[in-house]
Amino acid sequence: MMVERAVYVNKAGNPADHGRPTERDLGLLAEGLRGLADRKRPDYQSLFAIIADYLEGALAGTPVDALLARLQAEARREADERANTDQRLRRLAEVSREFAASSGGLGQLLDLVARSLGELLGDLCAIRATSRDGEWLDASGAVYHRDPVLAAVAREVMESGRQRIGEGISGRVAASGRAVLIRHLQVSELRAVSEPKYVYLLERLEATSAIMLPLRYRGEVVGVANLLRGSGSPPYDDRDLAFAESMADHAAVAIANARAQEAERAARLAAGLATSARQQAETRFARLSESGVLGIVVADLDGRIIEINDALLAMLGHSRDDILSGRVVWREMTPPEWRDVDTRAVANLLESGIGGLREKEFVRKDGTRAFVMINTAMLEGGNRECISYVLDLTARREAELAVAQLREQRAADARIRELLESAPDAMMVADEAGTIVLVNRQAETLFGYTRAEMIGQRVELLLPSPLRAAHRGHRAAYFREPRVRTMGGDLELRAVRKDGSEFPIEVSLSPLHTEAKLLVSSAIRDITERKKADQQRASLAAIVDASADAIIGKTTAGEITSWNRGAERIFGYLAHEAIGKSIGLIIPEEHSDEEQKILQALGAGETLHFDSVRRRKDGTHIDVSVTASPVLDRAGKVIGIAKVARDITERRQIEAALVRAKDAAEAAGRELEAFSYSVAHDLRAPLRGMNGFSQILLEDYRDKLDAEGVDCLQEIHANAKNMGGLIDALLSLSRTTRTDLIPARVDLTGLLRCSAADLAARDLERTVHVVIEEGVVVHMDPVLTRVLFDNLLGNAWKFTAKVASARIEVGTTSKDGIRAVFVRDNGAGFEMAHAHKLFAPFQRLHTVSEFAGTGIGLATVQRIAHRHGARLWAEGKVDAGATFYLGLPASCWGSP
Amino acid sequence: MNKVLLLVEDNPTDEKLTVRAFKKSGVANEIVVVRDGAEALDYLFGVGKFEGRDPGVLPSVVLLDLKLPRIDGLEVLRRIRGNEMTRSLPVVILTSSKEHEDLARSYVLGANAYVRKPVDFVEFAEAANAVGLFWLLLNEAPPARIETV
């Protein structure tokens, strides 16, 4: 931005030169902005300054676009006009010269005038001169039309008869001396008042407009020019009329001149007298000087002024006396830079008698300049006198300058537009009322409105409705104290598109001080993406900060670049104590080689995980688990390292505790093993003794005992047997947890048949109807599965003992989406309220006298079920049977 | 001549009950009782305390407890099966254990039968009766020496 800023500073540094930006300025700035389009924060101030410069001149309370349109239209019109006027002026100058130089008599001069008028104002020009007696317009004259046929028709009409002055249109024009402009000629309306031949001519010409032009000289009408335009051209207007009149004046002078010459020639011939050239000149000048349009001066070659007309005096601002007395030196009226032109003209005069058409300036009396076109001709008579015709072109030149200025301004407009369009962001200029006066294409794209839809609207159009009222307040406050506000500050807004969608924007504001009014220019940027990124960054930062782990950034050289709260907590150093230091700060000497290894591995793009030891600020060591990953630039080069270190002291402690617990559990398991073994062997042996010897007594010594003694022995015998059963059940329960689970394909139907057969064999007195579903196959530990179903079937068998026709049914079903094996009986059942007690060890829902049992069977079933990941539940009702469900996971059904 | 029945049992109570159960079931064969695994092997191979006993004369069946002092039952079984002289000798495991492990290893090592000692004497007597009936009366003992093929 340096170059552009320099441009502006220079301009601002020189208040006198507070003009429009030059093309070069704009070009440089546009380049600069284009270069900035993909940069973050363009400095809009230079652009704003240039727009302000531009608007200051251009704006007068009207919207800039309207102003531009008007300026452009004006510029076009003036350019056209200028071209037209230019051509006419040149032609006029030429015609004047031709008129002046014409020496072929009156007839030839009239032809020349008719041709000139016809060519310049078209289509038809017919000129009749007045008769000597001043009563008539002659039947002869000059006719011009580019189509010779139509010219011939017109000539015939004209020559068909002379026109009495005061009668007919031409006659009335000749009488009044005032020109008539008929903008819209209706031929039909003329029939009544015009001669049929004339009407015929008008029809042939398809005339639509007409000018009747008196050719006046010194108040006397010397002729009338009829100008007619056909349907192929636009009708005559006031400017055509004015131009025709000035032509007519020239023509009148020439005609009068020609008549005078003819008269003189006649007089000379008649009187035989020689007339001095000087007299001739005086005579001619006396007439010429009457012309109010052309400045005319007669001078000798030494610069002495002989005569000068009023028109030229008016042009120059001097009195005749000033000039003729010599108080004003004629030569000095030409500024030095134009004197060469005069010198060349004098040379031409001496050589050819004509000075040549030239442009030059005169200094007026008031010191201003008059820009003129001038031609000079030697007067006849050889006395070194010459006559100059001077046409004042000052107005024209001013018009030219204005046009040039407009053109320049148009170019500036275009450049300003280009400049606006080249800005990377949407740009908008608004006035104090909030009316949008200027937008760029990016603004159209951003908001979805066209330029025309935005210009003239309030800027609040682009804000969500809840924010509009507040914004009007902001705007008013801003205009009270306007200042530059760059992007990236706290000025964040929400905007709304034409389609109603909202988005966050960032706005940069700058006041534009123009003479007419204060405006504000804004650059607007859609920051949806950036907001998203910001939020993401903020949330990442929050995550990093909230992390219990230490998250540390460092350079490849090992310098710490970031240090989160986790790092502060774990290592004891605060962020400001660690950042900028070497990572060696927390690495114990014995681990100092780790960094090099990390760097090597990360260079290969790997992420490393390892456990190590780090040093705290207080010197103590800490077990950490480290994840180190490379931070890459876009090219994939490692530019830093991100490290996450987790305090694993606790984990280490837990791990150690787990190892100890596992050892203890294993030891306990071994003890239990040994215990179970001795239970099986050693505890049962005394029971066998008690049972066996009491039995022996009963068998062999019964006769020596009374009834009570026998009963006591029987009690001992039965209790010992019961305790054996309890021990067996306990062993079975413990086996279910100790044994390894080795699942295999189990023919459950077959297994259940065996189990039922065993039960039947042990209880031959009962008849139980057992129904087993065919073809049930499971994948479970075969030994434990047998224990499980022995228990379930045994249970069912036991609790149907008091039912007349006992029935046990085993099959598969689906419950709550789980495929289950059920064992249903029609036995004693249970109260659902106690269902939760069913599977707890030693819990019984029936007294021993009702149903014998250890209270361990279902606990064993439960354990085996759990070891298979199965679910066990029961449904029952007192005296209405019970159903046990074993919900098996898919794996137990052979599915993967 | 009736062959002896060798009972390897360290528990005197179980010994008495076993002997009684066999007697009750009408087993007339002499029951030799040894107290541990070492004694059992000494008896079978005619060494130590049983120096001079003819090892060629084998018992008709060995009733072997598993949990024994000095040398346990499974080791005794392994040595019986490991010796050419005794490898065909019928061995019936008679034990309190119902551990799957014990059962499996016993069969792997070549036990001929596995009988669990029930707590209830009536059942025990029935078991003893069945064992005696089968091994002493029904089963034809293998020849004293089985030639190695």
Characterization of the model:
The complex is a heterodimer of chains A (896) and B (149). With 896 residues, chain A is of the alpha+beta class. Chain A is 48% helix and 22% strand. Chain A is built from 27 helices and 28 strands. In chain A, a hairpin with a 6-residue loop joins β10 (369-378) and β11 (385-392). The longest helix of chain A has 52 residues, at 649-700. A 5-stranded parallel sheet of chain B has the order 2-1-3-4-5, with helices on both faces. The longest helix of chain B is centred in the C-terminal third of the chain and has 18 residues, at 121-138. Chain B is globular, with a radius of gyration of 14 Å. Chain B starts with a strand and ends in an 11-residue tail after the last helix. Classes of the chains: A alpha+beta (896), B alpha/beta (149). The A-B interface holds A 676-677, 680-682, 684-689, 691-693, 695-696, 717, 720-721, 723-725, 728, 731, 735, 739, 783 and B 11, 13-14, 16-17, 20, 66-67, 95-100, 117-122, 124.
Largest sheet of chain B: 5 strands, parallel
**How are the strands ordered across the major sheet of chain B?**
2-1-3-4-5
Task: Please report the number of helical segments of chain A.
Answer: 27
> What is the rounded distance between the termini of chain B?
29 Å
> Strand portion of chain A, in percent?
15-25%
Please trace the helix and strand order of chain B, writing H or E for each element: EHEHEHEHEH
Radius of gyration of chain A: 62 Å
